[in-house]
Amino acid sequence: MTAVRTTCAYCGVGCGVSATVTGGRQVDIRGDVDHPANRGRLCSKGTHLGETVGLEGRLLHPEIAGKKVGWDRALDLVARRFADAIRRHGPDSVAFYVSGQLLTEDYYVANKLMKGFIGSSNIDTNSRLCMSSAVVGHNRAFGEDVVPASYDDLDAADLFVLVGSNTAWCHPVVYQRIQAARAARGAQLVVVDPRRTETCEDADLHLALRPGSDVALMNGLLAHCRREGLLDAGFLRDSVNIPEGFWEALDAHGDAGAVATTCDVALEDLQRFFHLFSARPRTVTLFSQGVNQSVRGSDQVNAIINVHLATGRIGKPGAAPFSITGQPNAMGGREVGGLASTLAAHMDFAPENVARLARFWGAQDVAAKPGLKAVDLFRRMREGRIKALWVMATNPAVSLPDANMAREALAACPFVVVSDCIADTDTSSHAHVKLPALAWGEKDGTVTNSERVISRQRAFLPPAGEAKPDWWIITQVARRMGWESAFYYARPADIYREHARLSTYQNAGARLFNIGAHAAISNAAYDAMEPWRWGGAPFADGRFSTPDRRARLVKVEQRALPAPLERWPLTLNTGRYRDHWHTMTRTGLSPRLARHRQEPLIEIHAADAIACGLKDGELARVETPQGASIYRVGISEGQRRGEIFAPIHWTDQQSSGGRTGLLPRPTVDPHSGQPGFKLTPARVDPFPVEWSGFLVTRTAPRAINAAYATRVRAPQGWLVELSGNGEMAPLIKSVLPAGERIEAIDVARGQFRVAVLMNGQLQAAIYLSRTGNLPQRDWIVSQLETEQAGPAVTLLAGRPATPQADRGPIVCACFDVGLKQIIAAIGEQRLASVEAVGNALGAGSNCGSCRPAIQRLLGEALGEHA
Ligand SMILES: Nc1nc2c(c(=O)[nH]1)N[C@H]1C(S)=C(S)[C@@H](COP(=O)(O)OP(=O)(O)OC[C@H]3O[C@@H](n4cnc5c(=O)[nH]c(N)nc54)[C@H](O)[C@@H]3O)O[C@H]1N2
Ligand SMILES: Nc1nc2c(c(=O)[nH]1)N[C@H]1C(S)=C(S)[C@@H](COP(=O)(O)OP(=O)(O)OC[C@H]3O[C@@H](n4cnc5c(=O)[nH]c(N)nc54)[C@H](O)[C@@H]3O)O[C@H]1N2
Ligand code: SF4
Ligand SMILES: [Mo]
């Protein structure tokens, strides 16, 4: 039982994980104390990785038309159908849609096959939806897509500005490092986000700005810096090109009062932000989807970078604009050129680059122009113009904007191949061929995190069934298409060496991305590779990757923000929950992670809820011009008026409600093609139901015929929330397994309670009510974990003989501590700090992901005392 050092499967923080197999597919997960990204810390998702490595739901064999086949048949068919389409309709009639969750080696060969040998650039990636605006911003400002920051800067900064980033939930270990810097050196934290998220909980300042007004804010800040004499004249003179009329255009933002009005924030708050910025030159501005996922995403990125360039807050310790990446290998994908708009090794489509790639790869037909960006690619597909599509490691039927459009496109494509580790996804239901890929824990290669650190992912489990590495699958198809020698690799290290060689090939310093030091790395050294950062401290010498080596300010203007429409009076913002990852194919397997948010909420301001006729905890239908879905109403003080927020995680696999992917409009940034996921005109109406309740079941629930049904994993089973109209009996009949039944049915009072046992063990139980009289879920769910369920009366009552206190929703996933427990302990034991709560209940003392939530409860309790 030796520990294997690998990296976390989830976010771009890129934490090191130490995994020890303790038997079968059981694994003990620890933070890797030697990894520079996390030094042993892990968040809730990383901590509970062990609950996601079983075989449940895995795709174990290749399938053609739903039938199990051998690898040879599946690979032959894929190669033949792609070759046919290319022969009959040309190379641009086929496409790959790939992902920042592939390893660098997988990504490299996918890009090489499409751009180098098929000769089309129709390979795009879910990174288009994620950070393509940051890529454009970097290219425009620096001449290369380089993130000029590292986590060491977090330890040296005096001011953190988080723009459009719910860091406490989405990059929790970065958030913990920020908190550590604040504790150690009194660094200040400003959060710029229309919502009051848990990231704002302990912030020095929260600017709840009007969505889409970030350019006004940043231009206003820059105008302030200019007024106050904070520009770095020497740096501007030596290292930065300033477009004509740049300062004049900025004058429009010179009036702080007008900026406050545009951004809809208090003038005092705006001025506090400006003063903090003036006083603390060691500033790191971290940004993510609130900035990128906008139809003005690229300009918003450049508005941030402009401020850093003009004040010289770049290339120095503790001072940088920092685009934090979402997926574990978003950065690796950028390095291999996985976007339709880039070429490998940070090259663009300049003719000399195309020629250089042709020489290096020994390829005749290297694509000479950019390909279709994700949304356009699916539009073209819906028109029937893409004849063969290969989707790898992403779930576009959920994650593209206007997902119904994406589904129509998949349905219109004559040949769809899906490589995934999971058998049934909303995307794979459209696949003609399904190819089983190795999952985290089985796959082997490298990833690059937000701070340019390349780390190994290592295998510690055997392959599931016949699953194969993605690089193997891709190269097998390439070889069958006739490119035998160009795709001959025996192991990931072979691909990595080629990738490293390409980065240094005829690169006389023009591109900072150069990992030539590894061009001849031995297999043993690759296996033993320690995490290392490429690019050192970029731009520290004031030299950039542009032809004249100078950075560029970019003229960006705040566009007028449209007023709400009568039919669509609200705007829909979408994003993430703390303990779920995207379409839940993996976090959905973990009972512990399921408990933080068991249902998809539509969060709404109390006044809007009244105006729309909604009540907290009831159901509502959210509609946009693209589609509609049902959510549980969560009235929230964190929402601005007129704005609602929905999570992105629920899919057809878990739910008939909360299907957020159907809602966003497919409008994109004109430069990057990134969709504006955060702002869609919408309306909300009550969704009346006659009865509600829940089902607890040991076996996976089948399709459930109820107006609203969402399921989450529980220990030894599932918990399904249900609501509907009309008769309840048919539903009960359809969802309960055979066995010994005990029931309490009171038709007059509209109460159905049925439990099914087998040899005394609970198999399933359903509780439905027309009056809202329902037991707590906790105890009944716990009955699945016992050999002998409690006596019939307790099962029907839904509570133990000696009543248990209601713990409320789970806040701490590590120690299973509920909201009500924490509130009670704070009151009874007069706890005054997060540490004190940790000592009393354990909550917050392990992974730390729930510390902001505890902070909020402490704040509320204190408020009540006052
Ligand atoms: N728990 C969890 N962590 C994850 C992921 C996950 O699925 N779950 N996914 C990973 C991935 S791929 C990504 S890309 C990252 C995303 O990480 P984040 O970007 O932090 O996450 P989001 O929730 O998408 O959006 C961030 C915030 O942008 C705000 N916002 C909306 N509109 C505006 C605006 O106009 N201006 C500003 N300033 N802010 C705005 C939203 O209110 C939201 O709170 O998370 C990564 N980490
Ligand atoms: N409305 C709205 N939509 C959004 C966003 C938003 O904020 N709002 N955010 C966008 C962003 S930033 C992102 S990154 C996307 C994410 O969206 P997706 O990429 O669609 O989401 P995932 O659930 O991560 O899908 C990954 C798939 O790959 C599979 N997989 C995992 N590992 C491997 C592997 O090694 N090999 C193979 N072949 N398969 C694997 C998983 O089982 C899963 O099915 O969503 C985007 N969509
Ligand atoms: S912050 Fe959490 S999800 Fe992200 S890499 Fe680290 S442990 Fe994994
Ligand atoms: Mo992302």
Automatic annotation (TrEMBL):
GO terms for molecular function: 4 iron, 4 sulfur cluster binding; metal ion binding; molybdopterin cofactor binding; oxidoreductase activity. Pfam families: Fer2_BFD, Molybdop_Fe4S4, Molybdopterin, Molydop_binding. Transmembrane segments: none annotated. The keyword Oxidoreductase applies. One of its GO terms (cellular component) is membrane. Gene3D superfamilies: 2.40.40.20, 3.40.50.740, ADC-like domains (2.20.25.90), BFD-like [2Fe-2S]-binding domain (1.10.10.1100), Dimethylsulfoxide Reductase, domain 2 (3.40.228.10). Keywords: 4Fe-4S, Iron, Iron-sulfur, Metal-binding, Molybdenum, Nitrate assimilation, Oxidoreductase. InterPro entries: Asp_de-COase-like_dom_sf (IPR009010), BFD-like_2Fe2S-bd_dom (IPR007419), BFD-like_2Fe2S-bd_dom_sf (IPR041854), CT_Nitrate-R-NapA-like (IPR041957), MoPterin_dinucl-bd_dom (IPR006657), Mopterin_OxRdtase (IPR006656), Mopterin_OxRdtase_4Fe-4S_dom (IPR006963), Prok_molybdopt-oxidoreductase (IPR050123). PANTHER family: NADPH-FE(3+) OXIDOREDUCTASE SUBUNIT ALPHA (PTHR43105:SF9), RESPIRATORY NITRATE REDUCTASE (PTHR43105). Belongs to the prokaryotic molybdopterin-containing oxidoreductase family. NasA/NapA/NarB subfamily. This is Assimilatory nitrate reductase catalytic subunit.
